[in-house]
Specification:
Blueprint: H1 7-12, H2 15-20, H3 29-44, H4 82-92, H5 98-107, H6 109-118, H7 125-131, H8 146-156, H9 160-170, H10 185-199, H11 204-212, H12 215-220, H13 240-247, E1 264-265, E2 268-269, H14 275-282, E3 288-289, E4 309-310, E5 320-322, E6 325-327, H15 333-345, H16 350-362, H17 369-380, H18 390-399, H19 401-404, E7 416-417, H20 420-430, E8 434-435, H21 476-479, H22 492-506, E9 514-515, H23 519-522, H24 528-538, H25 546-557, H26 564-580, H27 582-585, E10 586-587
Antiparallel strand pairs: 1-2, 3-4, 5-6, 7-10, 8-9
Length: 588
């Protein structure tokens, strides 16, 4: 892994991008053409545990409104079409089947959201690791089971909205197994993802506290075992977590207006914090280490599945000052941590900074200022006085008029590039993929040349797989001043690697014992037009252009289609071609 960033590396980031959080060769010529077209076209457009008493916004999420008039602003007044349902599910889940689309069309958005919010976490990753015996001594220094548990969770969990939000949070508050040098690291990261699942619809302030005390984050940003300053040696507390907590998880680098745009003074962005603030906040994160109480050496996996505990001799008991906040001398460690998080949580930057990134992960890379401001207002106050209510924020993001406006389909600057992981999981969920032996041995998909170039919880740095303010150079996006975060993963190798990997995956190769259920799809394979129409809805939400539909139908019609094997090959080709098409790769 790339080590946590040095101050020099942090400064090397483009300040305007990060601070403002600003706005395929296959087996046939057809695959190559569609893969290349994807690059060109994309370049042109675009359970919650209780909150801590006394924490700002500590009241839990309010009861969710029903489907009555006015309860869900932005919900279409007319019944949903299947295409509208598929489009909504593309934003709200990691993938939906034909049955999911039909169910939403029947229920309506408000009912579906209420059902999803009410669902508990289906199975915690830590529980699955224990159930598979991966806490055995032989797995102490391996990562065995982490990818398996994660793919199982992403592909099969019925709480589909929770998984979409948890994955988004994992790309904002990044911890990566590549930077956790410990025994039972698979349990540390599984416990971390379980925290994200638990709080996906909870309060962002409580989420911050739980990730701050998690062993995975303690190892990843190097404050586990952090000690107070030593005047004799001149050592100072490690500053990694204090810096990234501010820069990436809460307030960003520069002051923001409510709509997410940067505050400018005399032509310069106004910084949110300085080095003295980092130093002061770092004093809060001293003395924290693994909680091994009641455990015997060699310590078992359980040490990675508990909040960290205090080692009093390492904790800085003196006063701590940062961002105009003073934590008095003698304040105990947990109280100091909570006061520090409270101070960050109420900072006016947090609402637009986090809201904009969540909009980018779910809906569109370049939301309007009005969209960001509306969602940020809900983050600041859910209507019942609670700040940081993620349930209300997610609802606001998905039901905002800008998100639901079908006119955006014609806007070349609207939408987002689907992440490679999202495309893979979409295919798996759309066609009911299962692991025949419950092994889920898909593995690490990080290799860009032969796999996806992305694998969850394996980010190469704390800045995620891609930065929210990334502008792909020498592109139409750059010419318009638009961001394209996922394009940071996009190049000739990853385009080709993705298509080749998916070509094998849809045919049941290269993904362990993962197998999709193609019974309904195979029944349509004898009619190329019907086959394309099904994939047009289930995968592309009706957004394949007439030209693409015609090309696909002609290509498939030219393939043999008499025997079962020939029909299967036609179906595999159809799936691969749609998954490689630009209208699919760009989520509108």
């Amino acid at each position: 892994m790339n080590a946590p960033p040095t101050p020099q590396e942090t400064q090397a980031l483009t300040t305007a991008e990060e601070a403002a959080n600003l706005p395929l060769p296959g087996r046939s010529a057809a695959l190559s053409a569609l893969g290349a077209a994807a690059l060109a076209a994309c370049g042109g457009g675009s359970d919650d545990s209780p909150s801590t008493p006394g924490t700002p916004g500590s009241p839990g999420s309010p009861g969710d409104p029903g489907d009555g008039p006015g309860d869900n602003p932005g919900t279409p007044a007319t019944p949903l079409t299947h295409e509208e349902s598929a489009r909504f599910l593309a934003q709200a889940t990691l993938g939906a089947s034909r049955a999911d689309i039909e169910a939403l069309t029947s229920k309506g958005l408000g009912t579906w959201l209420n059902e999803q919010f009410a669902m508990p976490v289906s199975m915690r990753m830590v529980d699955w690791l224990y159930a598979k015996g991966l806490d055995a001594e032989e797995f102490r220094f391996s990562q065995r089971g982490l990818d398996n548990a994660l793919w199982r969770t992403l592909i099969t969990s019925p709480d589909a909205l929770r998984q979409r939000v948890a994955l988004a949070l994992s790309e904002i508050c990044v911890a990566s197994v590549l930077g956790v040098d410990s025994s039972y690291r698979q349990f540390a990261l599984a416990y971390y993802y379980d925290i994200l699942q638990t709080h996906a619809f909870g309060n962002y302030r409580q989420l911050l506290e739980d990730i701050s005390l998690s062993p995975a984050m303690g190892y990843y940003l190097t404050y586990r075992g952090n000690s107070k300053a030593n005047p004799k040696t001149g050592s100072q507390p490690d500053e990694n977590y204090a810096r990234e907590l501010m820069q990436l998880f809460t307030i960003g680098l520069v002051q923001l207006r409510a709509d997410g745009t940067p505050v400018v003074n005399n032509g310069q962005f106004v910084e949110t914090y300085r080095s003295d603030d980092v130093m002061g906040l770092a004093r809060v994160f001293t003395g924290w280490d693994l909680d091994t109480a009641g455990l015997s050496k060699p310590y078992p996996a359980a040490q990675m599945c508990r909040p960290m505990a205090q080692v009093a001799s390492r904790y800085e008991t003196g006063a701590k000052q940062f961002l105009g906040t003073t934590i008095p001398e003698g304040t105990d460690a947990l109280a100091a941590l909570r006061r520090a998080l409270d101070a960050l949580f109420v900072h006016p930057n947090v609402a637009p900074f986090i809201s904009r990134q969540l909009i980018q992960r779910l809906v569109t890379s370049n939301p309007s200022g009005g969209y960001v401001a509306r969602v940020a207002a809900v983050f600041a106050n859910n209507g019942q006085g609670a700040r940081g209510d993620l349930r209300a924020v997610v609802r606001a993001i998905l039901l905002d008029p800008e998100a639901r406006d079908r006119g955006q389909l014609q806007n070349p600057n609207w939408g987002k590039l689907r992440e490679p992981v999202q495309r893979f999981v979409h295919w798996a969920r759309a066609f009911g993929a299962t692991s025949t032996g419950d092994a889920w041995d898909v593995g690490d998909l990080s290799d860009p040349g032969s796999r996806l170039g992305q694998s969850p919880l394996r980010s190469p740095s704390v800045f995620n797989f891609f930065r929210p303010g990334y502008i792909p150079p020498n592109t139409a996006l750059a010419a318009q001043g638009l961001v394209g975060p996922e394009f940071q993963l996009t190049n000739e190798s990853t385009v080709a690697g993705y298509v080749n990997f998916m070509q094998n995956a849809v045919a049941g190769r290269s993904v362990g014992d993962l197998r999709a259920n193609y019974a309904a799809l195979l029944a349509k394979a004898g009619d190329p037009a019907a086959l394309v129409a099904e994939l047009q809805l289930v995968l592309a939400a009706g957004q394949l252009s007439p030209a693409t539909v015609a090309t696909l139908t002609a290509v498939l019609g030219g393939m043999p289609g008499k025997t079962t094997t020939e029909l299967q090959n036609r179906m595999y080709a159809a799936l691969t071609l749609v998954l490689a098409s630009p209208e699919y790769i760009v989520q509108k």
